[in-house]
Design a protein that fits this description.
The protein is of the alpha+beta class. Among the domains are: 297-396, Aspartate Aminotransferase, domain 1 (Alpha-Beta Complex); 419-496, Orn/Lys/Arg decarboxylase, C-terminal domain (Ornithine Decarboxylase, Chain A, domain 4). The protein has 14 helices and 20 strands. It has helices spanning 20-31, 52-59, 78-90, 101-113, 128-137, 160-169, 191-200, 236-239, 258-268, 275-313, 345-355, 377-396, 423-428, 466-478, and strands at 2-7, 10-15, 94-98, 119-123, 140-144, 147-148, 155-156, 176-179, 186-187, 204-207, 231-234, 247-251, 317-319, 328-329, 333-338, 361-362, 366-370, 416-417, 431-435, 492-496. The strands form six sheets. An eight-stranded mixed beta sheet has the order 3-12-11-10-8-4-5-18. A four-stranded antiparallel beta sheet has the order 13-15-17-16. Strands 1-2 form a two-stranded antiparallel sheet. It is globular and about 65 Å long.
Amino acid sequence: MNITKVSAGKTNTLDHTKAPLYEALCIYEETNRTSMHVPGHKDGRVFDKAAQHHFSKILKIDATCIKGIDDLHQPTDSILEAQTLAADAFGADRTFFLVGGSTIGNLGIALTLCSPGDKILVQRNMHKSVFNGLLLAGAHSIYMAPAIESETKTAMVAELHHIEAALAENPDVKGVWVTNPNYYGMSQDISRLAEICRQQGIPLIVDEAHGAHFGQAEEVPPSALSMGANLVIQSTHKMLTSMHMSSMLHVKGDLVDLERLARVLGMIQSTSPSYLLLGSLDLARRYLVEHGREHLRETVQRLEKKRTELSLELKSLSIWGGSSEVQRRDPLKWIISSKDEVVSGYELLDLFYDQGAVAEIGDPRNIVFLFSLNEKEEDIDKVVGAIKAIDEKLQELAVIPHEKKEIIMFDEEGTVYEPNMSLQDAFHRPRHKVKLDDAIGSLCGETVLPYPPGIPLLNPGEEITKRHVDTIKQLHEMGAYFQSPSDDSMETLYVIKS
């Protein structure tokens, strides 16, 4: 597929049938030169014999930056061409390949936009990597509480008037940073927000980790770039077809210092990047343009038909079909929950695992099934069969409904606040452990992170309230997984020494 672009009076034809970086790796393999350079497996000659049948072919192109293979940190050849093709496919002015997942992109954005002491307006339900990036940058975060979808109780972008009010109170921020879509595929129209940011001369940054396929067909929500965002992170490995840990960072407009961004990414990405991951990004773009968009349309049609049928058949379970609070939903994600909350999302996660269907996420209420661009009827039917089986099982069981207690993760929508202490200051301050109930009123000394989706309940430097303590207890009792807590029992917590 050739796409013709006209710029500055010149006509450029981009050939999307090519995968320049992958092709360079194939040439490397075909030349069959003797490797006297890293990596130590020497194109697979030296490797664990029992596992060689799994790795042998891929190791032959697990190359490094030598003659004929471009340099990620100074791309002039195949990587540059691959990134240019990706920018065209996703509607960006410039695209950077990432080999540390969207985490690297979020760290890079924070370090590019913020100097120590700079303020930035940040949606509070961001992935931990955003806060870690702001910590490293020494930025002062102004937190905005998100909106909460009433049925699923999931967090999403706050209403525009709340963000406008926050900007009016903080006109010196370096940008506005939101997550859209959320982990559950709920997408809001951010075009007006992008326009407001543009008028103020600040970038709109969007963590679009779960929306790499957005804008690639009419059947899915529009992309953040198409709605005017300036910096967009996409986890290409999540919803498209690249290998795990491979992502893209897209830039549009003139509000971002590209030279500084490239310099920062050169600092935080490995000087020995995986060319397997980079090559898979190149191939994910080619597949998307050549076949993926059509496959996406066909898959959505199949999924929507099955979802509609299921919604009429289910007795104990429900499948979310959208709400007036959400402008667009991602049809590649099915949100399943127990009617009347008879069982929790964590329990559903285990039930479906035993049934042979592994969900992407479980939370107090819901689980999420995540489909790919190209799902055949028989593969969808396996998931449908598992849902029906669990639905029947719950009807047969004499399950005692849970006591309905509202689990509150965030402040009321519209709440805007600057923490008592910046992330970086809190990180470097002395801390000590106290019992959970005794932590109320203190400043948190660690990240309290129910995972997934990797959104901190508490960040370092935030004041611990009774609401936080109650939520920690509730989540722990329900079986939530906390990532890297100082106390697995969640009975104690680090607080900042006063």
